[in-house]
Amino acid sequence: MSSKVITRHAEERQAQAEALHASIVEQVQQLADSGQWRTFLEFARSFHNYSLNNVLLILSQNPDATMVAGFRQWQAKGRQVRKGERSIKIFGYREKKTARPDSDTDEAAESDERVARYFPTLSVFDIAQTDPIEGAEPLPADPTRRLTGEDDHGIIAPLSAHLEAHGWSIHRAPLTSASGFTDPESHQVTLAENLAIEQAAKTLIHETAHIELHHIDDIDEYRAHRGRMEVEAESVAFIVAGLTGFDTSSYSIGYITGWANQDATIIRDTAARVLKTAHSIAEIVDHVD
Questions:
Q1: Could you tell me if 30 and 120 lie in one domain?
Q2: N-to-C CA span, the chain
Q3: Cβ-based neighbours of 183, under 8 Å, separated by 6 or more
Q4: How far is Cα 93 from Cα 19, in angstroms, rounded to an integer?
Q5: Longest dimension (CA), the chain
Q6: Residue 63: partners with Cβ closer than 8 Å, 6 or more residues away
């Protein structure tokens, strides 16, 4: 391939990347202005925050579960559990205080209180096991919908080879909520095992961006500035995916909006770092000879 063709290809890709980045700002602003993110966030907060043990129990019985609640709780949210649906069993927590039988005074009774703790079995159902109740308000749409395609668009093999050449290993494992994470101590990138191939490809770009941007060189620094770093990594994923030929906006825009706290300013402020890293990763997956 001639140098003129290579230069033209690089210029076209740069222009496309800049247009994709500009579209992130626009779409995040639209989502924030619509109030959809805030509405969904308030809805999500209305669900009980289950312990890790209960999350593992839920996923062991229904690996595809996303939002679970009890029978009456779903009715209060305007949805009815379908007849014949099998419940997901979890453990609740109860305390019962009783006075010791030989307490003679109020003071003694208070200090001699006995607390009995027990863990009753509770039944919950996933949202997929419910239907809307006629006349009820519809549930707000999730602004971060995982991709479901079965094509990795040529992402996984070259990025995996690149990471492995630099001492990283890639694994699939059951994860309770995140699509993936990167462990700098073990030099391991983990992707959730239940991801569709297209979502796995996008997540691999995201984790590669964290590595290329040196986000995880200092974990304390990452924790202190996690919002900005997550915005940068997902912006890179959106741009690289767009350059490669697939659209991740159904997931990426909601994700970025949340981590940016609905403020598009952080996206503009990180443009230079994002575009530079997007070009670097795009070159790794570029199939042009």
A1: no
A2: 7
A3: 189, 190
A4: 52
A5: 98
A6: 174, 194
Q: CA 18 → CA 25, 77, 206, 263, 274, distances in Å?
A: 11, 42, 18, 19, 10
Tens digits of residue pLDDT in 79-133: 999 999 999 999 988 777 776 665 555 554 555 677 778 788 999 999 999 999 9
Residue 10, helix vs strand vs coil: helix
Q: Which residue has the tokens 């994709």?
A: 20
Non-local (6+) Cβ contacts of 201 within 8 A are 152, 153, 155, 156, 241, 246
d(CA 153, CA 131): 35
pTM of the model: 0.76
128 DSSP assignment: G
Q: How far, in Å, are 20, 79, 188 from residue 143 at the CA level? A: 19, 20, 29
The helix or strand, by DSSP H or E, that contains position 239, with its residue range, turns out to be: helix 226-244
For residue 54, give its domain range.
Answer: 44-132
Output the six-digit token pair for 61. 């019985």
Q: Are residues 182 and 259 in the same domain?
A: yes
* Owner of token pair 């749409």: 141
**195 in a domain, yes or no?**
yes
Q: Return the amino acid letter for 188.
A: Q
